[in-house]
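Retry 2 of 3 after timeout on previous attempt. Resubmitting structure tokens to design endpoint.
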């Protein structure tokens, strides 16, 4: 979920402002730290000489530090950002802090531009389940949090959509997680691209499984790990080789096969290991799982008896060797390994172990002797060779001197080095055979692959204390991969700037690494000079270093380190300066083998061993080592003939790999090792920083800083930073781009700090941070003002409440005092009792007025009832007319939509034709340029071929002269031998002369061999030039074929253009008919609208009268209620004053008659009120019944309108279906046009013809567009009128 491993939610504005205010107040920066990499500190004071006085945040310690050592800190807005390329302050400290914070939060994946940086969590994380796969399946990269699945899905979808091969490059230190991420990529691809429905396996990590091919692809990894992985100090399951897994897909996107290529197997691990390290896993699996039968059959022994296992039975944490052995055998069965093949692998592995147990001694003449031949017999049995032949090949190998074979004596050290070389070569050939066998199983699918996704798992840049030949090869590979990344980034940046039309001087960042790469691979480079010294008889490791320094004196890349030995030299790589130790480089590069043993193994009785050594025809060695020791290394005496060194083979592999990667769209994954303790949740900052430099992340940051790394859309820029430009933008609507330009002008930013594109603004690094800081200052000021205003308003309200309370208290006190003073006064008592009786006479007049008003209201109610009936009849007729108009409007809308769709199709086809013609022009120019370049190259090659032939003739003459010298020397030797037989006295002198002549003969033979090698090299170059000439001729023939195909495509396109013209004419006729129909509909609608306006005016007038009557009726009802309340009060007062009337009888005797009359009148009035109430109840009931009837009618009409709306919705759905079908047809036509775009035109005459035709089509299209626009305008007007009518009807229904 998002909360577990996604991006954090944005905080609210108030907390954001509070954090920013705190951050600004402290002026936080990053300063270097030995233990933490960088520490947060606050700037306390700016000192002279570009220095700061800072205080460390964690400890409070104060320091004085140079301005150059200070790195800016990003605002809190950029905390835990998912893409570090968007950081405003892009530096090492910011990258390290962001990775550290995300790692502590359980977020191990982070983007950095084109990179995906992965930090090894050292624990199981539930982010590789099927639910997570489904979440990333088919989604864009920015729609989900960073993940390896996003990289894999992006590569897979890009391959399907763009039909472009993809590659995923995983690099990093040992233990950083390269192999695990490679497995996750393969699992994801096997799941989403399986030809069968995938199922979830029952393992703990819920790994995916699919069909047979997908299962084989997943099961190839356990075999490779068993034979290619080992325990090291840094990693318990370290890959000791590089691999490139190429997964092929068919046209539908299903997996069609796979191949695996391997690089630089660390074969020396098979014979010796460092302390606390193991050899390859399979040896331990094999020995721990062997039963009695296997021990007998494969001649196995205990761990301690094998010398090639330097540390004996060493276990690795988390690795169960018996279970892993079963998993390896199960994977072999899935890959269809036969039982015989598995047993042959076991025999070879046992032989490799036993080769180390051979023991030798030396006699007085330093001749090597075998102490016990039982081990040799067991090795010979496993390898299928004769034991005596094997022993003689080791101890007394034969070598060819001139035309004779000579037996050479071997010392103990020479025999041991021969055995070690044989062990390493045997295991290497076994590993290569296993890879070949896996590829054979993965490539049995009948479906043909049309594209592929390649996954590269190779070691990252290495800087050790002692860097040897292997580190040079690995670092050379990473230089090439970094150059590929820089070049890819250059292309991406260039495309971005071109799309946004940004003026920028393009710089190919791949050229930054060219000096170092040229130093390694060009003529007179490191690898070339190393190969050359391997051919020289007296070359040493020291002479190689001296030659490097002589040829590269003026180089800034290669230097001699101070206080170093004679074998050391340094090279400046992109990741830093590396000091290499060239000791034993000549031996490692030539990789010597004993020819006698090789020939013996090639004729083995074991077919498997014989097959392993069949490709060993070009052996890079002689019998024995044929050299002698010097104070500066081992002098190498080389065998005559051509051979290929390790460096040459590796460069060929790397060249092939780079050509493959350059033809793909690369995706980069950089794996980071967090610590050496293999502990979760812990970051070793210096270690991570070193890996960031070596992995090229810092190099990518450097490239980003040269351009405009921060991008923001116009709308987002306006919304976020408009607060910095108060009063600049007007309140009226303004385009976002124009508003952004005005804002930038008011901000007074220099032109070089930003660029305005088509959809976004590009900023230099650090500019957005400055704007964020200014915005935070502004928001802080505004919040302070807002808080002050709010506090003022609250204080004023509280003050006014207190003033009103004070006034109310004073009034209450005054009234209470007056009441207390008057309540005992007799006249006041009499006043309070008589006052209610003063209103009796006024009640009669009010009752008469109410009666007259009631009569008027009843008359108006009758009139309104009659008018309401008339209005209901008119409403029914209007509703019928409205239904007819809506039906007509729907028909007109359908016709208009069809015309609009036809117009859009025509415009799209017109644009596609224009783009097609323009592309054909460009391709024609490119092909003409290619042909001219090919002709020039062909001429150059012919001249070069003539030069080579002349050189060959010269070399042939020299060779003949040397053969003559050789023949004359042989005659002299024969004469000397005859003289030796006849004259014994001069035997000593003749033997000396013979030795001198033999030495001269050896020198001449060496010279002859060198001349033969030169002749062979020249012949090879001649054959290469001939093949290149043939390729140029084939390209010319292909160009001719393409030209013919383009002519046929041109004719087909002309036919399609004629068809399109006919369709345009038909559509114009349809548009004219539609225009006539629309005019008739417009006249009808205008007349109907007039009637509707008249009826609506009359209806509104009647409704207004009805509302007036209802209001008067409600007033009368309220008056009646008041009268009832007054009457009740009077009755209560009667009871209250009954006792008072008895005391006042004497005074009121004169007015008794009048009172009796008033009582009788009151009774009559009460009776009349009862009658009025009854009549009002009857009228109210009648009115309510009438209202209910009108409501029922209105509900019926509303239901009818709803039914019509449902019918219209159904019609709309049908139209949407037709629209989707038309869109699919349009997509098919677009695909057909894409395929036809591969053709090219050949004549300017046809191009002009197309242009004239297009101009005519454009004119017709413009006329059609004008007609359609007029029709659409009329339709829009009709729609607005209908909407107005519907609104009026809704108002009537509501009333």
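Retry 2 succeeded. Sequence:
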């Amino acid at each position: 979920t998002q909360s577990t491993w996604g991006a954090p939610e944005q905080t609210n504005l108030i907390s954001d402002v509070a954090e920013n205010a705190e951050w600004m107040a402290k002026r936080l920066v990053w300063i270097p730290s030995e233990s933490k990499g960088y520490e947060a500190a606050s700037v306390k004071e700016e000192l002279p000489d570009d220095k700061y006085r800072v205080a460390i945040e964690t400890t409070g310690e104060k320091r004085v530090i140079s301005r150059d050592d200070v790195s800016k800190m990003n605002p809190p807005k950029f905390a835990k950002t998912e893409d570090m390329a968007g950081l405003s302050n892009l530096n090492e400290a910011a990258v390290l802090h962001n990775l550290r914070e995300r790692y502590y939060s359980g977020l191990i994946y982070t983007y950095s531009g084109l990179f995906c940086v992965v930090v090894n969590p050292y624990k199981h994380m539930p982010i590789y389940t099927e639910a997570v796969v489904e979440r990333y399946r088919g989604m864009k990269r920015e729609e989900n949090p960073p993940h390896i699945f996003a990289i894999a899905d992006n590569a897979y979808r890009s391959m399907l959509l763009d039909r472009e091969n993809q590659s995923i490059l995983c690099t990093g230190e040992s233990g950083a997680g390269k192999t695990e991420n490679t497995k996750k990529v393969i699992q994801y691809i096997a799941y989403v691209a399986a030809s069968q429905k995938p199922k979830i396996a029952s393992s703990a990590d819920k790994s995916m499984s699919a069909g047979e091919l997908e299962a084989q692809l997943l099961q190839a990894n356990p075999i490779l790990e068993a034979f290619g992985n080992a325990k090291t100090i840094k990693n318990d399951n370290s890959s000791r080789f590089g691999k490139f897994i190429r997964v092929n897909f068919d046209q539908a996107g299903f997996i069609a096969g796979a191949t695996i290529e391997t690089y630089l197997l660390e074969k020396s691990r098979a014979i010796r290991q460092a302390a606390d390290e193991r050899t390859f896993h399979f040896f331990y699996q094999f020995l721990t799982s062997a039963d009695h039968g296997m021990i007998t059959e494969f001649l196995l022994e205990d761990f301690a008896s094998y010398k090639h296992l330097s540390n004996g039975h060493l276990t690795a944490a988390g690795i169960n060797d018996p279970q892993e052995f079963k998993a390896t055998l199960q994977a072999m069965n899935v890959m269809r390994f036969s039982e015989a093949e598995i047993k042959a692998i076991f025999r070879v592995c046992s032989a490799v172990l036993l080769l180390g147990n051979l023991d030798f001694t030396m006699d007085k003449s330093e001749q090597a002797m075998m102490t016990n031949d039982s081990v040799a017999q067991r090795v010979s049995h496993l390898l299928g060779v004769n034991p005596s032949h094997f022993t003689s090949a080791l101890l007394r190998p034969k070598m060819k001197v001139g035309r004779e074979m000579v037996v050479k004596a071997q010392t103990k050290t020479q025999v041991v080095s021969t055995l070690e070389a044989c062990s390493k070569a045997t295991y290497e050939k076994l590993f290569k055979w296993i890879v070949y066998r896996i590829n054979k199983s993965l490539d049995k699918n009948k479906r043909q692959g049309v594209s592929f996704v390649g996954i590269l798992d190779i070691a990252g840049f290495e800087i050790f204390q002692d860097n040897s030949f292997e580190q040079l090869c690995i670092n050379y590979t990473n230089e090439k991969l970094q150059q590929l990344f820089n070049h890819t980034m250059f292309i991406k940046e260039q495309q971005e700037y071109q799309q946004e039309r940004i003026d920028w001087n393009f710089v190919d960042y791949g050229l930054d690494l060219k000096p170092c790469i040229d130093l390694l691979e060009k003529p007179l480079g490191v690898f070339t000079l190393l190969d050359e010294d391997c051919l020289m008889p007296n070359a040493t490791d020291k002479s190689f270093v001296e030659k490097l320094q002589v040829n590269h004196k003026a180089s800034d890349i290669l230097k001699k380190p101070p206080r170093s030995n004679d074998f050391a030299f340094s090279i400046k790589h992109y990741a830093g300066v590396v000091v290499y130790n060239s000791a034993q480089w000549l031996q490692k590069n030539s990789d010597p083998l004993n020819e006698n043993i090789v020939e013996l193994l090639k004729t083995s009785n074991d077919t498997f061993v014989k097959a392993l050594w069949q490709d060993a025809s070009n052996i890079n060695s002689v019998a024995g080592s044929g050299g002698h020791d010097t104070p500066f290394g081992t002098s190498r005496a080389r065998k005559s003939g051509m051979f290929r060194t390790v460096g040459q083979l590796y460069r060929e592999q790397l060249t092939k790999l780079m050509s493959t990667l350059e033809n793909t769209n690369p995706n980069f994954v950089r794996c980071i090792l967090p610590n050496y303790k293999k502990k979760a949740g812990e970051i070793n900052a210096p270690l991570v920083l070193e890996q960031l430099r070596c992995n090229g992340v810092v190099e990518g940051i450097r490239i980003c800083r040269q351009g405009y790394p921060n991008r923001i859309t116009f709308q987002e820029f306006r919304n976020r930073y408009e607060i910095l430009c108060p009063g600049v933008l007007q309140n009226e609507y303004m385009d976002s781009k124009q508003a952004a330009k005005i804002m930038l002008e008011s901000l007074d930013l220099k032109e070089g700090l930003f660029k305005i594109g088509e959809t976004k603004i590009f900023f230099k690094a650090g500019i957005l941070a400055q704007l964020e800081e200014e915005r935070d200052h502004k928001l802080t000021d505004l919040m302070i003002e807002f808080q002050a205003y709010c506090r003022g308003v609250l204080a004023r309200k509280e003050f006014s409440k207190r003033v009103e309370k004070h006034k109310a208290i004073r009034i209450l006190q005054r009234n209470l005092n007056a009441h207390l003073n008057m309540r005992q006064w007799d006249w006041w008592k009499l006043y309070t009792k008589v006052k209610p009786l003063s209103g009796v006479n006024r009640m009669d007049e009010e009752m008469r007025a109410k009666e007259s008003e009631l009569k008027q209201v009843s008359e108006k109610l009758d009139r309104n009832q009659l008018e309401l009936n008339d209005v209901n009849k008119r409403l029914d007729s209007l509703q019928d007319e409205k239904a007819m108009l809506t039906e007509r409007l729907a028909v007109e809308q359908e016709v208009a939509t069809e015309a609009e769709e036809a117009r859009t199709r025509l415009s799209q086809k017109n644009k596609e034709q224009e783009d097609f013609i323009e592309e054909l022009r460009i391709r024609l120019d490119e092909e003409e340029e290619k042909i001219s370049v090919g002709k020039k190259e062909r001429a150059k090659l012919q001249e070069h071929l003539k030069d080579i032939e002349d050189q060959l003739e010269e070399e042939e003459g020299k060779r003949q002269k040397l053969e003559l010298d050789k023949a004359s020397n042989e005659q002299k030797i024969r004469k000397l031998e005859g003289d030796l037989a006849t004259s014994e006295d001069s035997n000593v002198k003749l033997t000396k002369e013979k030795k001198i002549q033999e030495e001269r003969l050896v020198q001449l033979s060496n010279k002859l061999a060198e001349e033969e090698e030169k002749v062979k090299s020249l012949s090879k170059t001649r054959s290469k030039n001939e093949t290149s000439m043939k390729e140029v001729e084939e390209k010319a023939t292909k160009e001719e074929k393409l030209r013919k195909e383009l002519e046929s495509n041109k004719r087909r396109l002309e036919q399609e253009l004629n068809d399109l013209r006919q369709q345009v004419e038909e559509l114009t006729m349809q548009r004219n008919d539609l225009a006539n129909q629309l005019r008739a509909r417009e006249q009808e609608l205008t007349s109907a609208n007039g009637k509707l306006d008249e009826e609506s005016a009359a209806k509104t007038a009647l409704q207004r009268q009805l509302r007036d009557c209802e209001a008067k009726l409600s007033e009368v009802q309220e008056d009646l209620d008041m009268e009832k309340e007054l009457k009740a009060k009077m009755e209560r007062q009667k009871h209250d004053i009954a006792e008072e009337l008895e005391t006042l009888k004497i005074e009121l005797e004169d007015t008794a008659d009048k009172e009796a009359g008033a009582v009788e009148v009151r009774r009559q009035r009460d009776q009349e009120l009862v009658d009025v109430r009854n009549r009002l109840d009857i009228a109210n009931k009648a009115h309510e019944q009438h209202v209910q009837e009108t409501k029922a009618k209105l509900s019926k009409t509303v239901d009818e309108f709803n039914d019509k709306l449902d019918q219209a919705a159904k019609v709309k759905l049908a139209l949407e279906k037709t629209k989707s079908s038309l869109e699919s047809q349009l997509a098919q036509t677009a695909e057909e046009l894409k395929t036809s775009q591969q053709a090219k035109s050949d004549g300017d005459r046809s191009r002009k013809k197309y242009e004239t035709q297009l101009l005519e089509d454009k004119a017709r299209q413009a006329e059609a567009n004008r007609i359609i626009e007029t029709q659409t305008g009329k339709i829009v007007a009709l729609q607005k009128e209908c909407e107005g009518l519907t609104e009026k009807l809704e108002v009537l229904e509501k009333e």
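Attempt log closed. Residues 299 and 378 are 7 Å apart (CA to CA).
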